[in-house]
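Worked Example 4.2. Consider the chain below.
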Amino acid sequence: MIREYLSKMKGGAKSPPGVGITEVIWSWLGAALGIGICAYLSSSYFEPLDLTLLIGSFGASAVLVYAAIKSPLAQPRNLVGGHVISGLTGVACFNLFGGTLWIAAAMSVSLAIAMMLITKTLHPPGGATALIAVIGGEKIHNLGFLYAFVPAGLGAIVLLIVALLVNNISKNRRYPEYWF
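Applying the procedure from the previous section yields the following structure tokens:
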């Protein structure tokens, strides 16, 4: 029984193939533009209003929507829905359990995963969006439930717009695979 359990950890599938240089360039361009636009808008327009449009989980979203564009986890419903649902879940967990950080952190991520699975919006960076709502500090905490919409939702929409524009320039790329 233990041997069977441990044998699962060997793997068995082949490593995925590498990608060509054109895929690397398109992925780099999309990520540079998407994150760059969020960062520019954040510093120029949102931060003077004590808001932000840039959170760490967008780095992982950029990997999905610019480099893994065929993945179900990178599709628009998952990108935007995953961030908004996770943001709402994270803020709720901070409000309920914020006095005990380790409980709030664990509950925010685990409940965000459950909510994304239930709503068919699984987007792995959403786990980080939920966790940031708990550990993000006073500036994030002061946003309350607005955090789920600005920066989480609106920033995801900016990344999505850039993904739609950049990923469809090349004749060999198509995004999205589906919307809903």
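The chain has eight helices and no strands. The helical segments are 2-7, 21-46, 57-67, 76-97, 101-118, 125-135, 138-143, 149-167. Compare this with Example 4.1 before moving on.
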